[in-house]
Design goal:
Length: 560
């Protein structure tokens, strides 16, 4: 029977996956953060500084005295360089300390001619071995700056220093190339007739039905009653965190009287609309954010109440969430540590893990990526605290993840610093999520948000992003995404643009004379319809594109 005369045709599909390769990224998040016997070579050959051969491990002259920020007593001047406004600069150096404590923080700062210091990053340096210091700066002016290393240590040694400039265009190009590598895969289609010959000119219609990258938005209690808000949210986002409704002060305002009515209704809405939920949060380490009746409990009573709280909320939503912020902001605050001891956070993570062993447990913190001036929750200190939690007895199998809030308030976000912090935390090999991203108001709010989201999405270690914004009708005033008519604000337009940009949408390709066609697709779920001009029939099939598979080949065959 000729193909053109066939009355019944079936399309069979075989999806072949091969390999589990690891991409080689230009991001340096694979660099070790361990203390080494000898420093590694300078990145970019030293860039504008070129210290790769010059120092050879020698100690540059340290200037002893109180630095301008009042936090350090040793300042080491590296070099004076000229910055160009709008350029981004990545900094790295190998450092060690001597003549003092066994370990101490070493920070890099850029000193302008007016004396202003811009902090660029820091690391924990030790005696007798070399630690990698990473950081960066976005130049807000054209002019000369002095690069300083600062520490409480008596002496700083430095080697293999690098300062590499990038224009904004170069930085964006780097992001785009990384997105193609880490968020997409090449998919090959091979279409044949029943006799195995190539189906030249077959039309393949491709529709992405679900994104493979969780890009979501915070949700609040207005979602329960506001139908316009519900429609606005469900049409855009497939992952969320509740802003306040799962927190202890919301579910147990009076001791012993739990009320999950609002949280349950929000969970039901999310489930009905295929929206995944990050639990936020079991505990908050800030005394101010405790239920009023919790704040002054004696230790034994606090432990009893906290245990009941953890068992209640984790058990209630077991199997319905994709993760939990077990302890919120335990680098900036220590309510539970002061009451229950230094291992309080570790203990609560252990309890949550054993209660729901399959759950991903986040440590959630702010200013790690968004504020280089805050020395409390730097990437190195975050890493140290999370490693402490994971080393706690019984936590060996815990599924940990890194939660970085991302509340950006500076007029111009330091994207170079943000990348260095993500690089450092990426060395842990754990999923990183940006969990509460918002940007302070001002004329550049929309532009700044886009820069931040692109940086997070393009970084290989980042596996999810949740923004904290929404319609003004739902009370979102800091970062409003829609007006009272649910029309997008300039910030909302950025979000909608990126949602559309970061998916394949509807695509179509035709096979060549070999019956072959290739296309680069974002990770996610797809529905494909194949047809041919010589055949009066078609068939739809489904397949997935995932980051775990190196090559994907879809075999399609027309059967008479």
């Amino acid at each position: 029977m000729k193909i053109a005369e066939a009355s019944v045709l079936l399309v069979t599909c075989i999806v072949l996956f091969s390999g589990h390769g690891v991409f080689s990224f230009s991001y340096d998040y694979s660099a070790t953060m361990e203390c080494l016997a000898a420093p590694k070579r300078a990145q970019y050959g030293g860039g504008m500084i070129g210290f790769n051969q010059r120092t050879n491990g020698s100690t540059l002259s340290s200037e002893l005295g109180v630095s301008n920020d009042g936090l350090h007593n040793t300042t080491l001047s590296l070099k004076t360089v000229k910055l160009e406004k709008g350029n981004l600069y990545t900094f790295s150096a190998w450092v060690q300390i001597s003549n003092g404590s066994e370990s101490e923080t070493v920070a890099v700062a850029f000193k302008a001619s007016n004396g202003e210091l811009v902090h660029g990053g820091e690391t924990m340096a030790k005696q007798g071995c070399w630690s990698l210091l990473k950081g960066g700066i976005v130049a807000e002016f054209t002019g000369v700056v002095e690069i300083l290393l600062m520490s409480k240590a008596m002496e700083i040694r430095v080697d293999n220093v690098s300062l590499q400039p990038f224009t904004a265009k170069e930085w964006r190009s780097h992001q785009d190339k990384s997105i193609d590598k880490v968020r997409k895969k090449k998919v090959s289609f091979k279409v044949t007739y029943a006799n195995g010959t190539a189906a030249d000119g077959a039309l393949i219609l491709i529709l992405q039905t679900k994104s493979g990258f969780p890009f979501g938005c915070g949700m609040n209690h207005y979602i329960v009653t506001d139908e316009a808000y519900r429609q606005w949210f469900a049409s855009r986002f497939k992952v969320t965190s509740f802003t306040n409704e799962m927190k202890w002060y919301s579910t147990e305002k009076t001791r012993g009287v739990e009320n999950y009515t609002v949280a349950d209704a929000m969970v039901n809405f999310a489930e009905q609309n295929g929206i995944s939920i990050r639990g936020h949060n079991v505990f908050w380490d800030n005394r101010v954010m405790q239920p009023k009746w919790v704040k002054d409990l004696p230790p034994a009573e606090l432990m009893k109440a906290a245990t009941r709280r953890l068992n209640s909320v984790v058990s209630r939503y077991a199997g319905r969430l994709i993760g939990w912020d077990v302890m919120n902001e335990n680098l900036h605050f220590r309510f539970f540590e002061d009451k229950l001891g230094e291992n309080a956070s570790s203990m609560f993570y252990s309890m949550a893990y054993h209660l729901d062993p399959s759950m991903t447990l986040f440590m959630n913190e702010y200013n790690t990526i968004e504020n280089s001036k805050d020395h409390t929750a730097t990437a190195c200190k975050y890493k140290e605290e999370l490693e402490k939690i994971l080393s706690f007895p019984g936590n060996a199998g815990l599924k940990a993840a890194i939660g970085l809030e991302g509340h950006f308030r500076d007029p111009k976000p330091n994207i170079a610093f943000m990348r260095s912090a993500l690089d450092i935390l990426g060395t842990m090999g754990l999923p990183i999520w940006l969990t509460e991203v918002d940007v302070g108001g001002g004329p550049d709010q929309a532009h700044n948000l886009e820069d931040i989201l692109r940086e997070g999405y393009s970084h290989p270690a980042v596996e999810g992003i949740i923004i904290f914004g929404g319609p003004i009708a739902a009370g979102f005033k800091c970062m409003t995404l829609a007006n009272y008519d649910f029309e997008p604000t300039p910030v909302g337009e950025v979000v909608d643009k990126l949602i559309n940009e970061w998916k394949s949408g509807r695509r179509q390709v035709r096979t060549d004379s070999r019956g072959m066609s290739e296309i680069l697709l974002f990770h996610g779920d797809y529905r494909v319809k194949v047809s041919h001009r010589l055949i009066n029939s078609s068939k739809s099939i489904n397949f997935k594109v995932t980051k775990e598979t190196e090559n994907i080949t879809v075999l399609l065959q027309f059967d008479a």
